[in-house]
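Running co-folding for iron/sulfur cluster.
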Amino acid sequence: MAEPQTPLLSIRGLEVRYETDEAITHAVNGINLDINVGETVGLVGETGAGKTTTALAVMRLLPHRTGKITEGCILFRGEDVLRKSNGEMRQMRGERISMIFQDPMTSLNPTMTMGEQIRESLEIHNKGMSAALTDARVDELLTMVGIPPRRKHEYPHQFSGGMKQRIVIAIALACRPELLIADEPTTALDVTIQAQVLALMNELKESMRTSMILITHDLGVVSEMCDKVAIMYAGEIIERGSADDILDDGPHHPYTVGLFNSIPDIERESKRLSPIAGLMPDPAALPGGCKFHPRCGDAADACRSLAPPPFVSGEHIIACHKFGSSNGGRI
Ligand code: SF4
């Protein structure tokens, strides 16, 4: 029997709060997640579910005045990310973990040429690399993401949105990180370019064995890209499993069912979509019991007062009273 592998990234009991004078926002509420080498894990849910906050916590990039990790641990190759110094974290970001944001302009400097920006990223993390080698690597990275190297002297505004995002990917991959966190990397792009960027990310993942956390609300993207999926709601993971577990017709959390019903199904030619009624609860005033109960058509009395224990079937875990409990504890 194959030895169970040690996860590249292991998140345990993570809680994140944003604290201001007015309110305490419970953004992430005790999540557990493992990512193995070479694996792509989709973090899926509506805006405000806690997906980006989870990613920022892993990168240690939470806004330092308001964002606080109040519980839990994040292990990267067994090293405790939360105990690293700021200097060690700067080193880790880029070299071992990189992040791609939704809007490429968040990551690009409009006053520097694209070549200079890739070069800068290489130089920060490869002190002592010769100028000739750095130049060659810039050209190689541009070629890898399908941009002719002769365009390295151009500025961000001279590129289309899709090309800018591909260059952001080149910058993120410049140091061959072990983990790439991509936060809605294709949402700002039109559908054809979206498909090209996703195909590129898949190719790079295969060739470099990079693990990936892919944050998305798009289940189509999940089916293209992910090995495992965690569905987030109100700062909790409410269902988790392999991509097949999540995408097949098996039992699902009522929120996951709602997510499926709110996307167009081209194969079944369904014309009517039924978005989930109501809104995600205010994270500064979360409801008791199951946090989805105010929006759930299946809610029963227990759902309003008791947090649902996880129902486990192999790798597939659902936190919902409908399915009962098979092991207690939290997903
Ligand atoms: Fe709905 Fe209850 Fe399940 Fe929550 S625990 S999703 S309210 S049935």
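Result summary
The pocket of iron/sulfur cluster is lined by residues 253-254, 290, 292-293, 296, 298-299, 303, 308, 320-322 (CB under 6 Å).
The mean pLDDT is 89.
Job closed.
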